[in-house]
């Protein structure tokens, strides 16, 4: 498995397909496997050089247990380290949920590495994450059955694959990664790259996501009627046509992709 190293933390990634480079960044408690499970990879691989990244604390990447390891700047550096390892100067970036938070971080800390930005189910405003911490502490204390049961009670049904990823997770690493967030909303006005923002209508963060999109110059926004946060990611058939249309309508060649040093 290919890895990039960021200050001693190994970041697992995979590259599939050919074309303009597109980074996919999954959500909290998931892994890059989700993009394949829900049909994204099959649809994108014929059109793009897809770079799937396991966020630190998840999947095959390193899992530090200190909260300082999960500062947004470090998460952004994980992505740029992967781009460096893959020989890519600039790429399109698509992040969902936590991956969208990293996307706003890319716009703030590494905008020169981003061509187009797609963010689903996320905003850059301050966020209290104490609910996640209570849930994870329950899982640590009571075991994976309690963890999964509490998640389903909160979020509704989930796939067998996602349940397996929840059960296999490093709960201490996840707990370290969910400190409350400070706002980075000042980045919105500076996001001059083409941006597409979306959220499910029933997502508890919907209004904040929509509000953020309205403050990004020239951004596009779409809503998934009747879908929750988890459903919006799982129901890829509703999302892919809109995002692919956005990416293809704003394309201007293969900028940023280098053929040298490809792995």
What order do the helices and strands come in, and which of them pair?
Elements: E1 3-6, E2 9-16, E3 20-25, H1 33-37, H2 40-44, E4 48-53, H3 72-85, E5 91-96, H4 98-109, E6 114-120, H5 130-142, H6 144-155, H7 160-168, H8 171-176, E7 195-200, H9 206-214, E8 220-224, H10 229-234, H11 236-249
Parallel strand pairs: 3-4, 3-5, 5-6, 6-7, 7-8
Antiparallel strand pairs: 1-2, 2-4
Helix pairs in contact: 3-4, 5-6, 6-7
Structure description:
The protein has eleven helices and eight strands. Strand 1 (3-6) and strand 2 form a beta hairpin. The protein is globular, with a radius of gyration of 17 Å. It has a single domain (3-127, 183-249), classed as Rossmann fold, CATH 3.40.50.1820. By secondary structure, it is α/β, with parallel strands linked by helices. It has an eight-stranded mixed beta sheet, with helices on both faces.
